[in-house]
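Form 7-S
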Amino acid sequence: MALMLTALLCEAVSVRFASTVLGLQWHRSTSPLPDTGQWLLLALNEKLPRIVVDLLRAHIISLHHYLMLFIMLGFSTLFDCIKGPGLGIAARYMFTMAVGRLLRTVTFLSTILPSARPWCAQARYQIPYHPHPWAQKYYVPYASDPYAIRRIIQEDMPYAFVEEYPGEYRPKWGHMNFLVDILRPTAEEGSSWYHFLKKASGGCSDLIYSGHMFVAVLTAMAWTEAYGGWISVVIWFLVVHSAQREIRERHHYSVDCIVAIYVGILLWRVTDFIWSATDTSHARRLAKLDKVHNRLFRAAKDSDIDEIRDLLNEVELAGQERKGFSRRVILSFSSAMIVFTLLFVLLAFALTSDG
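Output:
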């Protein structure tokens, strides 16, 4: 939980920085990147029947539905539908989500890409028209002039004269003053640093990879491992539908959705040490049998029935689940976690602009 909250906080700060660092002029003047996925969908709109196109455009499922699907999956342990504990699969889901969010933050901060919706920054934020002082010095003089780019490669040192720009608004945030250069506040948006984090939202530069698709893929992976069968196939179809709709409505580029899919699959695979639906009892029995093989062979050779019985009992016990906490402790902890989670969700919707 703590890792998840830390990841979300880092992401909110980074989203605001990526959206404001180049200024409103850059957002207005920079064209979206060419996206072959968008071209393909437009071509299919011309070829496919109208009813199919309307189905592809329909808002069948959203982020909140994927989260609800996972909550349903977690609570299904109460009815012995999947392997318990439910908190185990929840811990794996949240840990994987936190790691994925941190990786996503590092990825979209490394290279700032223009949004597929050029009007986003003007409609969502009141950011300065001019670029951040860091961009003024290290990006703007070398952004478009081929000679300047060639020279900066050769000298590997900033050399260009920095133009005069309006000064930056610097509110008094006390111990949080270090956030001024990152969040880049304006007087029109208010003077509280917390206010800027609340309104970080989805940002207005392209955030590679898609956070919505990452949640969808983790939910589909959890259902696939826990249940499999046709239910998981349906959920994966919904994931594909969500991906094409993200591209169609230009919330993301195609690359954002594709990367989110394989990163989600990979991260879920490498975190199976937290919770797994796979029955490992057979493997544990074989491992124990391999350890006592020589002793078992000697006991059989000596016709020591008691020794053979004891060794086989050890092998059988090795395959059994380790005894955990009492049922009362598990129920108490589960109840506390459920109450905490519900309060956290309510506070998120009450204290932020969009949860």
